[in-house]
Amino acid sequence: MGSLPKGLFITFFIIFAIFPTNEAIAAKKNATMEVKLKNYVGNRTSVKLTATGDYETSRGEIFIKAGEEMKLNMESGKLAVYKDSIKLGTFASLKITPVKDDALLSLNGRPYHGSFLFSVAKGYIQPINHVPIEDYLKGVVPKEMPALWHPEALKAQAVAARTYATHHQSRLIDDTISYQVYGGAEGDSRTDSAIEQTAGMVLKHDGEIIEAFFSSSNGGVTELNSNVWSGGNPLAYLSIKQDAYDPKTKWMITLDKQQIDLSTKDLSKPDEWWTSVQEKDKTIVPNLKAWLKRNGFANRDIKITKVPVLSFSDKKTGGRATKGSIQLNFYVRGLVDKSGKLSEQKVELTNVPASKIRGMVGRDVMKSYLVDDLASNSSRIAIEGSGYGHGVGLSQFGAKTRAESGQTYQEILAFYYPNTAIIREYGEAPEVTEEVHTNSEASIIMKANPAHVKDKVTITYLLKEDATVSLMIKDGEGRTVATPISNQSLKKGSHTAVWKVSDVHDGPYAAAVSARDRSGNEARGTLELHLRKDTSAPMITDVETTGDYSTEKVNIAFTINEDSKLAVEIKNSKGKVVGVIAERQFRKGRQSVNWDFGNISNGMFTVLISAKDGGVNRNAVSTQFPIRKTTGIVTASELRIKERANPTAITIGMLYEDQALTILAQQGEWYKVKKGSQVGFVPTKHVKK
Questions:
Q1: Strands 46-51 vs 105-107: parallel, antiparallel or unpaired
Q2: Strand locations in 272-408, DSSP E?
Q3: pLDDT tens digits for range 552-562
């Protein structure tokens, strides 16, 4: 770090109050969440609306009054509004806002705070709820943690949920477990109290709001984010360590390798026995069938005969498996060989991400990646594990046990999110006006003027009476970084204190001062200041983009010359953002991120990389790259996707006449193609470019 620029000013004005002066924190504007309502509304073509107050349209017209009932129907791709069976109009989209903030709008009987934007998406009515963040939390916390649990556990969950929400505030999220489960205004007084007692409080690391992951149970050991989700750097506020307070929730999978015995059945006459035979397993097999139907066998009738392989491997330092393997043998009604007999199909996945296997067998079946024991014999597979969820960050059951043992919510959060501080991000602390005790002899007038010589900040203040004074400097997370004065007995008059800033970074700080008179009366004051020594913006160089059409991913590599918070965005030719693939802290040096363009059409795209250092310095660079995928149309009535470019290879999916696919490469008489999530090979003669 260099010396302070001579032209830099830091100005302080401190007014003291007696016991204590709480720092007034300005409320953030637009502290709202945008939530797509999917979980409880579901895929509906009709939604009933009732209101406890008046709601108006964006034109200021009253749309629905308190006590009224209306209905939205999806008709010809638009919203039709009905009242008492009378059609009032048709709209492409509809935005309504409460006239008074305390109004509630119920959708199919479930009440919600805030305003709404209704539109039609994928053939269904799609509501988006714009809701104040604290009201949003009152619909989240009781869905994520039982309201009857200990108040300190509820407060820890409230802070974690608020931190997660604030971190994602600029994005459109939904109300499912993909983000946080949100139940609208159906809250609970106990969780409401936990939210109100921690109002505005979030977790920060290095002055930035953290990604506050949490799960039900970590199985007795916390986990790193980078061990669970590939492509991310380990976060400094997450760690792997034993959690003695987690109850180590146990789970077990038992599965017969042979599900159906068809040795006595005539495979050329499946109609005689198809409906009478069923798989043994009623929990995992339905999930496996659902996966097959999503991956090449949509709307087909399937019988799974064998699951000879189901295993997990490649455990990371936290003990969680990262790889898995599975094999499925099955028949599809209507898929026959040349002789007219049912043709056995097979899917083999070897050493694929464990998340893929967990998604196949079911997340409620395989509750975590913490596999304790795996046994397999000639007839059966048995897998035992611990925990429920990814194990990163807060363990909800661990928080419950810690709270019941006497830990505060601050102590709970400090364990699960080390190297963080709880900061009031928005809202106001209780306001205390200036007052003086009648028996106080320490009436203090104090201010600080700028006086900089190289790496020093000089604070000047005036005491009107003798007092014992302490002056501490705290960083943006509330940690004391310097104590220029510690319990010094000072005479009335003018004094100075020097804070050496050579070893601290740019950013927000606070000077916290206390003065105690002879009678023991104490005055406290806090002021904010911003230190800026570094005036140079981060440098982003050597940007390279490399596309891989086999995986449909673009690797974006770059070099950053200092630790910075980076955002990487992808924009199409019209300037619309079509991908945000990084919004986090990066270490200096060579870095890279990947963008999946599987659902993106051909065209020219721009990568915009923006960086902000620990102070206020920003920089951005951009580069362009093209996407040129080749598409083809299936000409055969049925076309099997093969695992390899060989007619005898395993069939991994089916295509049908006139279906479109992406051609990734050509190998002789075979195309390497992609359809949905499947990548395989088909003969070139059955595909027209």
A1: antiparallel
A2: 302-315, 321-332, 345-353, 370-376, 380-386, 394-395
A3: 788 899 999 88
